[in-house]
Amino acid sequence: MFAAARRRLFPWTAAPSRARSSAPIPRDRWASATVFASLQGVSVAYDDGRRAVLEDLSLDIPRGSVTCLVGPSGGGKSTILNLVAGLTRPTRGAVRSDVAAGSRVGVVFQEAGLMPWLTLLDNVAFPLALAGVDRTERRERAAEMLRTVHLLRFRDAFPHELSGGMQQRGALARALVTDPPAILFDEPFAALDAEMRALLQDEVERVFLASRKTLLFVTHDVSEAVRLGDRVVVLGARPARVLETVHVDAPRPRAASDAAVLRAVREVTAHIKAEVDKIKREEADDGWCASQGDAAADPRRHLGRGI
Amino acid sequence: MFPSPIDVGAALARAAASGELPRAVARTGLRLVVGYAVALAVGVCLGVVLARAPRLRRAIAPLLHGLSGVPSVCWLPLSVLWFGLSEAAIQVVVVVGAALPIASATEAAVRQVPPIVDRAARAMGARGPSLLFRVLLPAAMPGITSGARLGWTFALRSLMAGELLFVSGGLGQLLEAGRDLGDAALVLGVVVVIVALGRAVETTVFGRVDRAVARRWGTVAA
Ligand SMILES: Nc1ncnc2c1ncn2[C@@H]1O[C@H](COP(=O)(O)OP(=O)(O)OP(=O)(O)O)[C@@H](O)[C@H]1O
Ligand SMILES: [Mg+2]
User: Fold this and answer.
1) Cα–Cα distance between A89 and A255 in angstroms, integer?
2) Which atom of ligand 1 is closest in space to residue A235's alpha carbon?
3) How far is CA B163 from CA B7, B141, B151, B190, in A?
4) Is the domain covering B5-216 a CATH 1.10.1060.10 domain?
5) A130–B134: do the CB atoms touch at under 8 Å?
6) Closest CA to A69 of A195, A300, A228
7) Whose CA is nearest to atom 17 of ligand 1?
8) Which pTM does this prediction carry?
9) Which ipTM value was assigned to this complex?
10) What is the atom index within ligand 1 of the atom nearest the CA of A76?
11) Most buried of the four, A128, B98, B126, B220, by CB within 10 Å?
12) Among candidate residues B1, B89, B108, the one with its CA nearest the CA of residue B47
């Protein structure tokens, strides 16, 4: 009876069978040597199914490599990331992943999501506290991580005393501190200046090279996607689907001037441009652009933010 | 019939010298502390349960709203029937009076925890008790403390009403005694003491808590 009450009050304390789908996957059955997460025919709809964000999307995230997702704003990238992290359930289809099978994962969300009542240091140490690491050790490890993201001086500041970009770097440190086998990034560097972004891209690549983690990296920035990704998945909008997967075969650590990098940037940009043009044509047909003027009137209807 | 401040001061001095006033303050203070502590525990637990159990909330929220409109001293006759003329009977009134506002403030605060905080915590593996104690309650703290402050004033009001009706020591009874003696100065003096007691706790305890919460949580201090 107590267990039943607990399930009702705190449903997520039950085994994470989050992929409540037509074919539920028992948590111990998922084991793939090459694939970290697999979305199969996944649909997600909000408002009781009236608004489909994803429809019949299939996508594999390979293990031990960097997958970048680029696509239009409002196209469903964060939704995909939440599915992989096991934080959203698909309305249809199956999500299988190491996370659903109980493996740890670090997540850097689009909004930093630091705990407002904890200092930066305690925020970064928070996942270690949950894991039961003792206080001295977790503070040491958190401080080390803060040094990596160049925020050690702000260790005692509360999140509301930090800028948006600083909070994002704090969230990055928090995701890295437990050294999880997989990390999901949702536009982590969008709010940063070019220099800091380049520094942290180097850091992400260094972390990857050091332990060959599985990384899923959502970004608007094509050069960032190509800089980091082994594969760049280009998504189309409404409903989201995979337009193209571009493989980047440049040696690491990468230089922006590498010929393979430049070629991949051109390729990805061309795919995105084709999609933007298509959306523009459709909107013109709707009469939307004519009546609304600038597409900025409703950014959700348009590819935005740097693409 | 309206006593001067000097009369009031003199009456208070007499009551203090006879030991009546200190005894009454001690008795009322003890009842407040005990009743309020129970109300805080009950209110916060009830609020969390209501916030996280939508079906239960839909079932009992209308009832609770209805009850919170009833002055808690209305429960005194029933609690006297149950507990007799005991401390427990008067505590029931204090607890009912203070727990409801604390519960509804806690419920609102827990439901308003930013979804990103909840999601980030779950992504880091916070579940069950660790989610509750390390995330939901701290995240809801600004709302819970303002509910606690409201609960304090409700506790004081309920207790005064209870003590007036249910004669067994405390400041309420001193008020009654003043009326029986036709001593308006004493009655007014006791009112002053009640106001001072309420304000003292408000400013020392809750003022400090509010400032601490504002500093940590980045909310605006009262
Ligand atoms: N909780 C929600 N309720 C209703 N609709 C939602 C919700 N979350 C997302 N959506 C809708 O789902 C669509 C996809 O959102 P999502 O956040 O996945 O996009 P995105 O690709 O990450 O966009 P951006 O690049 O701007 O971050 C949007 O049209 C949004 O309106
Ligand atoms: Mg997003």
Assistant:
1) 39
2) 21
3) 25, 32, 18, 13
4) no
5) yes
6) A228
7) A78
8) 0.80
9) 0.79
10) 18
11) B98
12) B108
B174's tokens: 């001193």
Amino acid residing at A246: V
Any idea where the domains of chain B sit in the sequence?
A: 5-216
CA distance A113 to A38: 26
Ligand 1 centroid – CA B128 distance (Å): 28
- Kindly report, residue by residue over A95-151, the tens digit of the pLDDT: 998 888 788 899 999 898 999 999 999 999 999 999 999 999 999 999 999 999 999
